Amino acid sequence: MQQQRDYDVLIIGSGAAGLSCALRLPGDLRVAVLSKGPLREGSTFYAQGGVSAVLDRDDSVDAHIADTMAAGAGLCDPAAVRYTVEHGAAAIGWLIDLGVPFTREEKADGRQDYHLTREGGHRHRRVIHAADATGQAIENSLEAETRRRENIDLYERHIAVDLITSAKLGLEDPRCLGAYVLDRETGHVEVFRARSLVLASGGASKVYLYTSNPDTASGDGIAMAWRAGCRVANLEFNQFHPTCLYHPLAKSFLITEAVRGEGGRLLLPDGTRFMQQFDPRGELAPRDIVARAIDHEMKRLGIDHVLLDISHKPAAFIIEHFPTVYGRCLELGMDMTKEPIPVVPAAHYTARTSTRGWPAPRYRRTCRPGTNRGSRIPTRRWWSATTGMSCGASCGTTWASCAPTSASSGRAGAWSCCSRKYGNTIAISG
Ligand SMILES: Cc1cc2nc3c(=O)[nH]c(=O)nc-3n(C[C@H](O)[C@H](O)[C@H](O)COP(=O)(O)OP(=O)(O)OC[C@H]3O[C@@H](n4cnc5c(N)ncnc54)[C@H](O)[C@@H]3O)c2cc1C
Which helix (H) or strand (E) holds 7? Predict the structure, then answer.
């Protein structure tokens, strides 16, 4: 007989978006969280560089907004950018309270404070990070807290196959009633019924040849929402990260933008720098400009990759700031303290669509845009912006969502329109 489970809220996805949402829901709600594989196997765990917010006394909300709008090439929704930036520091505070071990340093006046790094297109240092494994630190803290909560049940290796809607059952009153879920251990499909459903299933970058994302980023949430009759939009907006390691064994290993933030230079095979020809900000230009420049040079010269070089910095500095990148490169036979490493642009972030103009505030509220540091390159139009993991309204904020990140696209999930069709369904991930 088919197993049936009943919850107040069913959350599909256990990355930063899904777990933050679960933790911010009232403790008297019965909540189920699904993940396709092990709980941590999503993009969140692999995020390296960090999260932007106004945390330095010399920085300001207005400056962060201005940088974000500029990095967004005029395509950002100003209201969403403001919301995101204004809530950044509070969201970081929430993560700190959860125990996320962000990197600290001693300031010139002897104070201990958080170390902030810089990202492309931004004038201030505002990226808080946990060395170069920020996502792992955040996911670990979120996971630990989630496992402590008695009202939250975690279902690992459970794949949501399709949404159950009233329309599919021939009922009136458009509602999402739950989801059919494949238990990978038993091979059986179970029915999860829920009063509300949250799609926090990450992005769809696996549709590209080169991607920084893990295999879970296959766009399941978008597809399920689409099959349920939701409008999906702006799918041509996809962010490409400029520097993914180019190596047959590296699969999708990202070289954090902070390497360029700390002085890393992009070089052609003959050792010449080229970014200045594309943008006066050089290697610190927004992400989309850098990725396009690399792509241009690769096509112009017929080369498979360019080089990223930070070997002019002291080895101890590189190893302290980039232990994960350094260690992985070393495993593959490259010592980044001594030589440049090969890099290519790779699909990184699935973009979102604006909810502006939606009729009812409650629909708009459900889909706050998050911010993912940096900028993104759409396949047809170029734009840069931020935002990633979101979860604004109903759940508060998530780390990369409404608040902490730097540039904000001001765009909500591409499939978020399901909240318009089904008032009890929201889409929050990226
Ligand atoms: C290498 C890398 C580096 C990054 N660096 C940064 C950074 O420095 N700063 C920043 O702000 N952002 C960064 N990002 C982007 C950021 O990590 C993502 O935007 C963010 O983690 C997305 O969170 P999420 O919860 O929406 O999705 P994910 O963390 O991808 O989680 C998706 C979840 O959905 C589950 N899922 C998917 N489909 C199904 C299904 N059918 N059934 C059940 N479960 C399903 C998955 O198992 C997973 O648990 C980086 C991303 C990558 C890949």
Answer: strand 4-12
